Amino acid sequence: MYLRAINKTRNRIVAQEVTEARSFAQRFKGLMGLRCLPMGSALHILPCNSIHSFFMRFPIDAAFLDKHGKILHMLHAFPPWRLGPFVRGAHSVLELPAGTLKFLETHEGDWIVFENG
Questions:
Q1: CB of 3 within 8 A of CB of 92?
Q2: Exposure string (b/e) for 101-111, b if CB count within 10 Å is 16 or more?
Q3: Three-class SS state of 45
Q4: Which residues of 7-37 are buried (b: 16+ CB within 10 A; e: fewer)?
Q5: Which one of 13, 22, 64, 73 is CB 3.0 to 4.6 Å from 90, fit for a cystine?
Q6: What is the mean pLDDT of each run of 10 residues along the chain (117 residues)?
């Protein structure tokens, strides 16, 4: 079963099919090995306060969330083979197809919630 990510601040669905990565192996693998991340899909990594894109084949957007779902920091079109920042206070990261955050007019300070899809 998938979760759905909703931006409650802007009343918009951010992703229809969110997969969670909670175990060490799931968090480490992340999106590595995929050829792309389809629009409407996302990976929610938790706990997490920093990401990398080593061994990835495509850029992504990333929203760093505190434990309540508030966006603390965002990366737009984060390219492959990079080490991302450590974000103080981040509890999880929502990884999305590149361009999603800008297209949905998502901003730092917005609140993301996860609901059963």
A1: no
A2: beebebeeebe
A3: strand
A4: beeeeeebbeebebbeeeeebeebbeeeeeb
A5: 64
A6: 93 97 92 92 97 95 98 98 97 98 98 94
Say whether domain 3-116 belongs to CATH 2.60.120.1140: yes
102: left (phi over 0), alpha (psi -120 to 50) or beta: alpha
CB 32 within 8 A of CB 56: yes
The neighbour count for residue 67, using CB atoms within 10 Å, is: 11
pTM over 0.70? The answer is yes
